[in-house]
Amino acid sequence: MREVAIPRRMRAAVLTAPRVCEIRTVETPAPERDQVLIRVEGCGVCGSNLPRWEGRPWFKYPTEPGSPGHEGWGRVVAVGYGVTGVDVGQRVAFLSDHAFAEYDVASASSLVSLPSRLDGAAVPGEPLGCIMNIWRRAMITPGHTVAIIGLGFLGAMLTQLASRSGARVIAISQRAFSRDLARSMGAREQIDLNMTDEEIVKRVDLATDGAGCDVVIEVVGLQRPLDLAARLCRVRGRLVIAGFHQDGPRHVDLFLWNWRGLDVINAHEREQAAYVSGMAAAIDALVSGRIEPDPLYTHRVPLDLASEAFDALGTRPDGFVKALVHP
Ligand SMILES: [Zn+2]
Predict the structure, then answer these.
(1) Which of 126, 198, 255, 280 falls between 20 and 30 A from 49, CA-CA?
(2) pTM of the model as a whole
(3) Are residues 208 and 302 in the same domain?
(4) Is residue 285 part of a domain?
(5) Which residues, chain by chain, have CB under 5 Å from ion ligand 1?
């Protein structure tokens, strides 16, 4: 086992109030039983970080150092008691909650090791694993017509995967920038989500000879795109809900769902093992070139400028898809 010097103190991002990110020097965490210590190379900024950044009445500030960074990758620098099969020096993507920091600890069972082919590559494991898990459950095959509603990082990556696998993708988004992006990811058609549902349904009917889509993936997380998604499915089509519906209960047109005999998939995972297997699938897809997310990492900033990454997430300027913070 190689020896690596580990400083007693490290730099970490701390949200001290809504929209205020400070870089503080704190104690470097020590790996406990079944944990490893990782020198963080980078951590993705996730849409789910936004409420923390903007502030909600029930959040307490300051946040714990490094929180809410959960899309980290880096190199193992120490292993805790009981850890087997993980070596110091190994490069990994990992699941944790404090990766906006120079060092973070993670459970050994949450790691996926990165092959040397990916040396130097950014590998935010959690969102890539999420994409592969949605992909697996969407069961898209060559020849399918697939509508994808919402073209952030997840929607754009699913567009790439589906197009490359031989499906015809109809990409639907409010932003012209995202629709252009979808075209570059292989989408055959792009539709403006600012049009009325009637207009969008008509466009999709025209494109599918009135049959509707084999699969529709909703990646927005709001009522209206969910309603629209169901309307775009063909009879016995598959409605895949990948959006995170957090702002209250939804009403669904169960008459329509019944009438069309839809298969409805909630493509969310809760088990750590499911995330880890999705991450492993993502590593395979990266190595084989089936997925190429790099053009979507549009904002890469050092830890000092983490607040710029959060800001971009909130304002979504044209050109923004996904931010990475490099401690
Ligand atoms: Zn995430």
Answers:
(1) 280
(2) 0.95
(3) no
(4) no
(5) 46, 126-127
